[in-house]
Amino acid sequence: MIDIATHKSVALIQATSHPRGIGFSPDGKLAYIANEAANLLEMVNVGEWKVFARTKVGKRSNGVTVSPDGGRVYVSNGGDGTVSVLDTRNNKVVKTIKVGERPWNMALTPDGKKLYVANGRSNSVSVIDTMTYKVAATIPVGKLPWGVVVR
């Protein structure tokens, strides 16, 4: 972790193996780190900078997005073409959603009702309805999409 005022490293988080993506709770108190080699989502208290919980997710987890209300964390799993949905009250996966090949980064609409997932090897973006946890649409895009921005 880097202090942006001093431009100095202030902490180092000991992740399990290969940290890949990170998302923060809306209040900034928790960090959620996808650990690609261990297929885990690791939870960290911001300020203490220590992993306090780990949850098994899909194969080669990489992207992380947190819902606007902080109730759900979405993790893309590049190795099995899925998105894991974690309930933050108990840090358990409540749903696994099949998307395209090699999903990477994601973005939620401001109201949290739609999740857009870049599927790198499928050359598409999956649109997930976060109320039903179903893919509502698949949008063909250019070659190897890596991320999505919602404005």
Lay out the secondary structure.
Blueprint: E1 2-3, E2 8-9, E3 19-24, E4 30-35, E5 40-45, E6 50-56, E7 61-66, E8 72-77, E9 82-87, E10 92-98, E11 103-108, E12 114-119, E13 124-129, E14 134-140
The major beta sheet can be summarized as:
4 strands, antiparallel
**How many structural domains are formed by the residues?**
1
As a percent range, the share of helical residues equals: under 10%
Q: How would you name the CATH homologous superfamily? A: YVTN repeat-like/Quinoprotein amine dehydrogenase
Instruction: Let me know the average pLDDT.
Output: 96
| End-to-end distance | 27 Å
- Side by side, the strands of the main sheet go 3-4-5-6
CATH architecture: 7 Propeller
Number of extended strands:
14
Polypeptide structure, described:
The structure is a single chain. With 151 residues, the chain is mainly beta. It has one domain (2-140): YVTN repeat-like/Quinoprotein amine dehydrogenase (Methylamine Dehydrogenase, Chain H, 7 Propeller), CATH 2.130.10. It contains no helices and 14 strands. The protein has strands at 2-3, 8-9, 19-24, 30-35, 40-45, 50-56, 61-66, 72-77, 82-87, 92-98, 103-108, 114-119, 124-129, 134-140. A 4-stranded antiparallel β-sheet has the order 3-4-5-6, with no helix packed on it. Strands 7-8-9-10 form a 4-stranded antiparallel β-sheet, with no helix packed on it. Strands 11-12-13-14 form a 4-stranded antiparallel β-sheet, with no helix packed on it. Strand 11 (103-108) and strand 12 (114-119) form a beta hairpin.
